[in-house]
Design goal:
Keywords: Heme, Iron, Membrane, Metal-binding, Monooxygenase, Oxidoreductase, Transmembrane, Transmembrane helix
Number of strands: 12
Distance between the termini: 57 Å
Number of helices: 23
Shape: elongated
Helix content: 40-55%
Mean pLDDT: 87
Family: Belongs to the cytochrome P450 family.
CATH architecture of the largest domain: Orthogonal Bundle
Largest sheet: 4 strands, mixed
Cofactor: heme
GO biological process, one term: xenobiotic metabolic process
CATH class of the largest domain: Mainly Alpha
Radius of gyration: 28 Å
GO molecular function, one term: heme binding
Strand content: 5-15%
Structural class: alpha+beta
Length: about 575
């Protein structure tokens, strides 16, 4: 089956390339010339050293004719009048020298050529690279290649060279020490189609820096701190309790409730309001956002072969992905329109959108496209990662009831059951804090951080990584590294607690990447996860639907790593 798929993809690729080049030739109206084979052109039957070949082709096609030499189009110019027309009359356009491989190799010094050797990696097929046998959604593939090639290795994905970075020290070297060269975002097909290369996630350079600084500054100025998050969660959690009360003793899927409650924290920040859990527009928004995150990775091949989008149907799910994402964008367009109705620049901003409307009067960066996609990314990223981590947390707690009981005991000791936990309680809840840290490590919501691209050449581990190389940070190579975390596949919050019962110190789990592109909402996500989880465990005991058939700890690998849907049972604590 694998061989059949490989050859099928290869044949389709060759066919599409051939049609593409014929169409390009027709549109560009290049001079005539002999037809060649797909990909190879006339190379197999063209003798560069036989001048008679050029004369024969001149007699056949005239004083100017075209040749397909591999994937490169070449135009041969003959005869005095044509030579003068091309290289004298049009000399301004025709005097540059081609930067082909041989010219480049001859012009660069030996040291640079030695360094420019990219990290090792598996061999692939011509054109396709390793794509036919590479599963983007199997994190074990990346770990296996790390064991084989080391902490930095190369992959040929189609015609694109990609470098995968693993291990804490190498990740830090590439994305922190060399952060100035490795913090841009690749402008691939999907990024362009979904976000129009707008928003903090998709932009690079000065625009990205200004957007990021605006976001951080605005959140600070609006007072979105520990006290604010305490207040938001304490206002939202009673609605969560009300929903759970209707399900006491009965198996239920807690995913929609978690997504909507976490989303309402983001809504309070961005829109200045929360939404009722039964609001049909809100539920539609959450459902579409969930689809984007769960199905996003299945579209990866389009980034390497964008022409595949012309195949009939929606084989790679791109159309569905765009439809779901557009629901978010349209929702946010309406929220911005609603805000403009009551916005007064002389009044203090009520929320994040008000702050954007005010800033639009002072900067050109925040145009309509940037704003629509920035608000959409804040809503989606602020909801999905935290909600997914909380779902992992509850799944692990029903698999490890002794951890849940120990956590509940600590919470009761600190709060006496008379109030909800607050952020200030973390210092007195080392075990609960350790549970959150272990959830972030084991759940590993983002095992592969979003890709980066190099903005300039840089050296690492004896290699010169060229400009415009795509980099993939493999965070799971650290979170499940046995040298850093003994018995790494075991859920064990105790690994962060010392013999005296205190936290050992800030542990490196890299749940939110590192360097200049680290997650803007990291501190917010950790606070939310701590508050929601401790509040739920304080009030309820969660257990499996059927202990003889426990829910799977396997994952769905989309844009994030999420648990397979599961049901649990909630009962009130004494």
């Amino acid at each position: 089956m694998t061989d059949y798929l490989t050859w099928a993809i290869l044949v389709i690729t060759l066919l599409v390339f051939f049609i593409y080049f014929l169409e390009r030739r027709r549109l560009q109206k290049l001079p005539p010339g002999p037809l060649g084979l797909p990909i190879l052109g006339v190379l197999p039957r063209f003798d560069f050293r036989d001048i008679e070949t050029y004369r024969r082709l001149r007699r056949q096609y005239g004083d100017i004719y075209s040749l397909n030499l591999g994937l490169q189009k070449v135009v041969v110019v003959c005869g005095y009048e044509m030579l003068r027309e091309v290289f004298v009359v049009n000399g301004d356009a025709t005097s540059d020298r081609p930067q082909n491989y041989l010219m480049k190799e001859l012009s660069e010094n030996a040291e640079r050529r030695r360094l420019q050797k990219l990290p090792p990696g598996p061999l692939g097929l011509p054109i396709l690279g390793v794509l036919p046998r590479f599963d983007f959604r199997d994190i074990e593939t990346y770990r296996r290649l790390r064991r084989q090639y080391g902490d930095i290795y190369s992959l040929n994905l189609g015609l694109q060279k990609v470098v995968v970075v693993c291990g804490y020290e190498m990740l830090r070297e590439v994305f922190v020490v060399n952060g100035d060269a490795t913090s841009d975002r690749p402008q691939n097909y999907l990024m362009k189609e979904l976000s129009e290369n707008a928003g903090v996630v998709a932009t690079s350079g000065p625009v990205w820096r200004e957007l990021r600084n605006f976001c951080l500054r605005t959140l600070r100025d609006l007072g979105y701190n520990k006290r604010f998050i305490d207040k938001c969660v304490q206002e939202e959690i009673p609605y969560v309790f009300d929903e759970i009360e209707h399900c006491i003793g009965q198996p239920f899927d807690i995913k929609p409730l978690i997504q909507m409650s976490i989303s309402n924290i983001v809504c309070s920040i961005v829109y200045g309001k929360r939404y009722d859990y039964q609001d049909p527009e809100f539920r539609k928004l959450i459902a579409n956002m969930s689809t984007v995150f769960e199905k996003g990775s299945s579209t990866g091949a389009i980034n390497f072969f964008p022409f595949l989008r012309f195949l009939p149907g929606d084989l790679f799910g791109v159309k569905k992905l765009k439809e779901c994402y557009q629901v978010e964008v349209e929702f946010n367009k309406q929220r911005i329109k609603d805000h403009k109705t009551f916005f007064n620049p002389r009044d203090p901003p009520r929320d994040y959108i008000d702050s954007i409307l005010f800033a639009q009067t002072k900067t050109e960066i925040l145009n309509k496209t940037q704003v629509y996609h920035h608000i959409s990314e804040m809503f989606a990223a602020g909801t999905d990662t935290t909600a997914t981590a909380l779902r992992w947390a509850l799944l692990y707690l029903i698999h490890y009831p002794e951890v849940q009981d120990k956590m509940a005991s600590e919470i009761m000791q600190v709060t006496d059951g008379a109030r909800l936990p607050v952020i200030a309680d973390k210092v007195n809840m080392p075990y609960s804090t350790a549970v959150v840290t272990e959830v972030l490590r084991m759940g590993n919501v983002a095992p592969l951080s979003l890709p980066h691209v190099t903005s300039q050449d840089f050296t690492v581990a004896g290699y010169l990584i060229p400009k415009d190389t795509t980099l993939i940070p493999c965070l799971s190579s650290f979170t499940h590294d046995a040298d850093m975390f003994p018995n790494p596949h075991k859920f064990d919050p105790g690994r962060y607690i010392n013999s005296e019962g205190f936290l050992r110190g800030r542990e490196k789990v890299l749940a939110f990447s590192l360097g200049k592109r680290s997650c803007l909402g990291e501190s917010l996500a950790i606070m939310e996860l701590f508050l929601f989880l401790t509040s739920l465990v304080q009030r309820y005991k969660f257990s499996m639907k059927d202990s003889s058939n426990p829910p799977s700890l396997k994952e769905i690998f989309g844009l994030t790593y999420s648990p397979i849907p599961y049901q649990l049972v909630a009962s009130k604590r004494d």
